Amino acid sequence: MKLKKFFVVMLILAFALTSVIGIVSGFAASSSKLPYVKLTWYVIGTPQKDWDLINQKVNEYIKPKLNAEIKMTMFDWGEYNDRMQTKIAAGEPFDICFTAIWTNNYRTNVAKGAFLPLNKPGNDLLSKYAPKTKKLLGDDFIKGASINGILYAIPANKEKAHNWGFIVRMDLVKKYKLQDMFKKVKKLEDLEPYLKVIKQKEPGVYPLGAYAGESPRFLLDWDKVVDDDVPVSLYPNNKSTKIVNELEQPNTKALFKTVRKYYLAGYIRKDAAQVTDWMSDLKAGKVFVMPQSLKPGKDAEMSISTGYEWKQIDITPPVMSTRESIGSMQAINAKSKNPERALMFLELFNTDKYLNNLVNFGIEGQHYVFKDKKKGIIAPGPKAKDYSPGLGWMFGNQFINYIYENEDPNKWKNFEEYNKKALPLLSLGFNFDDSKVKTQVAACKSVWKQYIPLLETGSVDPDKYIPQAIQKFKQAGVDIIIKEAQKQYDEFLKKTGRKK
């Protein structure tokens, strides 16, 4: 009799456990069976007037589905990294944050233990709470974003390649009949006659946008091996597997000399080395040409987000690098009190068309209006100026985004073709482990902050400052980093069967 009761109790417990698993692993179960939680999410961007209104609408939508609400906070471009590093260092138990190779550094935070592992053997949270997102991204993209085989943040589902070039203000092109620049500009030096026209005729406009952290330096398109602010890189063409110090390469010196020439000619903002918020200048109509990371339709996206018409000039060929995998991600804080619900939210955000477009474009009839609802084609609404973040590349899954009427209706098809024609770099999927050179990496980052903003904006003479910077980097241990990186990269090439 006792044995029979034991089996009955065990059966009830097993059923209860199965029910709980069913609740948290999908959205079919009633959210009332989940305890209510309040999540927090930090992102980067230009603060929007109607941000709180959109946050309210998000909560109205997700609460019945997840029995959760979320506090969304946007920090401006120039402050996001410092704000997040302060929060992480203080051990704040927030839930989700934007991370990338270029801000709130993904690799650095993983090394600190700041982000939750999502697919750890024996505890595969991604498969359990975000299976649709996992399928959307695919194994190759997940591998490219993983560190030592473990994924610590969810990449945005978007273009999987990049190239560099310029975006150009079309109202000024038309005003001064500069249309031939779209045929003649093949490199930075080719811009000079056009910059001269704007300098002479538009005193309130900076002919060339160059800022600390967003400058013509990116036209070199170095394949960064460590972090964006460490000059340890590969040439982006698969012709060599030798890791180099960027500052010792002739193309770096040549580019900085051209930028210096443009600075002295008055084509670049005088205090550029101290300015990181370049987007404000674009929105204020103060820039003629701006270097940008490009993709199909980038010019149309920038036209929408800034209120000015832009056209892009592609300079470098498209390549597929690890940067795309870790260039735009959402991580769950290792100290989050509700990591499962945070991942459930990201799953919903990446797969629910209404929710994703609500955050990207705002409220129908206010921030946008449909021109063709069936095809998902929209136009700015009467309150578009109050909510137009222009961050589709950051917010989840671009392939379910609406398209503005001035964008190519084949935008997503063009993305697929762009991805196919891009050159996959030999380093794709390589993530450097800096555990043996942490001191040197930190020292090099300090040197970078001291010298590179000055050089990339043309604020100082490169003939004088590049040798100084090289010496400072050597003192900081850059050669030790290069040696360790080369060792790891050679092992990676051997392991993956790629040529050395």
Helix and strand topology:
Blueprint: H1 2-24, E1 37-44, H2 51-66, E2 68-75, H3 80-90, E3 96-99, H4 106-112, H5 125-129, H6 131-145, E4 153-155, E5 163-169, H7 170-175, H8 181-184, H9 192-201, E6 206-208, E7 223-224, E8 232-234, E9 244-245, H10 250-264, H11 278-283, E10 287-294, H12 298-306, E11 310-314, E12 319-320, H13 322-325, E13 329-332, H14 339-351, H15 353-361, E14 368-372, E15 377-380, E16 403-404, H16 411-421, E17 423-424, H17 438-456, H18 462-476, H19 478-496
Parallel strand pairs: 1-2, 1-3, 6-10, 12-17, 15-16
Antiparallel strand pairs: 3-13, 4-13, 5-10, 5-11, 7-8, 8-9, 14-15
Protein name: ABC-type sugar transport system periplasmic component-like protein
InterPro entries: Bact_solute-bd_prot1 (IPR050490), DUF3502 (IPR022627), SBP (IPR006059)
Domain DUF3502: 428-494
Give an account of the 3D structure.
- There is one protein chain.
- By secondary structure, the chain is of the alpha/beta class.
- It has a domain at about 25-210 and about 275-425: D-Maltodextrin-Binding Protein, domain 2 (3-Layer(aba) Sandwich).
- About 45% of the residues lie in helices and about 15% in strands.
- The protein contains 19 helices and 17 strands.
- The protein has helices spanning about 1-25, 50-65, 80-90, 105-110, 125-130, 130-145, 170-175, 180-185, 190-200, 250-265, 280-285, 300-305, 320-325, 340-350, 355-360, 410-420, 440-455, 460-475, 480-495, and strands at about 35-45, 70-75, 95-100, 155, 165-170, 205-210, 225, 230-235, 245, 285-295, 310-315, 320, 330, 370, 375-380, 405, 425.
- The strands form five sheets. The protein has a five-stranded mixed β-sheet with strand order 2-1-3-13-4. The protein has a four-stranded mixed β-sheet with strand order 6-10-5-11. Strands 7-8-9 form a three-stranded antiparallel β-sheet, covered by helices on one side.
- A hairpin with a 4-residue loop joins β14 (about 370) and β15.
- α17 packs antiparallel against α18 (about 460-475).
- The longest helix is centred in the N-terminal third of the chain and has 23 residues, at about 1-25.
- The chain is globular and about 65 Å long.
- The model is unreliable at about 1-25 (pLDDT under 50).
